[in-house]
Amino acid sequence: xxxxxxxxxxxxxxxxxxxxxxxxxxxxxxxxxxxxxxxxxxxxxxxxxxxxxxxxxxxxxxxxxxxxxxxxxxxxxxxxxxxxxxxxxxxxxxxxxxxxxxxxxxxxxxxxxxxxxxxxxxxxxxxxxxxxxxxxxxxxxxxxxxxxxxxxxxxxxxxxxxxxxxxxxxxxxxxxxxxxxxxxxxxxxxxxxxxxxxxxxxxxxxxxxxxxxxxxxxxxxxxxxxxxxxxxxxxxxxxxxxxxxxxxxxxxxxxxxx
Length: 258
What we know:
By secondary structure, the chain is an all-alpha fold. It has helices at about 1-5, 10-50, 60-95, 100-130, 130-140, 145-150, 155-195, 200-215, 215-255. The protein has 9 helices and no strands.
């Protein structure tokens, strides 16, 4: 392990990691734009029953840009809060060796982190959830508007989000189990071939593995699993958008409560 660490060029490794991350991020941007355009179209339909212009109401316009800004702001806030305290706790844990006071502080911070990530962050996520829907309804991105508008209206959206998550998770798990049965035969053949192989040459074993993984049954099963996962995720997002649009309509009907 020490020899590997000495041979590894950390600077080159970090540079490669950063380049890879930037490439992946750049590849995600077109999908993010498309997702924002679809969400904007859905929200226009939910809020105003508008379905004109563009393919299925999908178009790149100011609503799409506002939805992207709203998504980015909420994601950045939740991401920073989700990772901020754990990062601080990890730092204190490294510093705590032999230091009782720092150890106690690290334990307290760990408890606070657990509470924050599993109570406070979900609360903030629900409280800020209508930000994109409000951006389409009001024509402006406003986190304070979403925050104040959800006052007294948290329970119903929260329960709806939980129900959507449970149903989506259950459906995805059932689909995964069903499709895994389609891959069971080829996967068992990999194990059998490995146990009875006359050679332990990694190249030969790897080539045999690739041959099985690229077999029609496995390719079809993996492709179907990917498509169905996307479909389930999209249905979950549609449900989330409908809940947020409903919350916005409640705000509009009772503006004095915001």
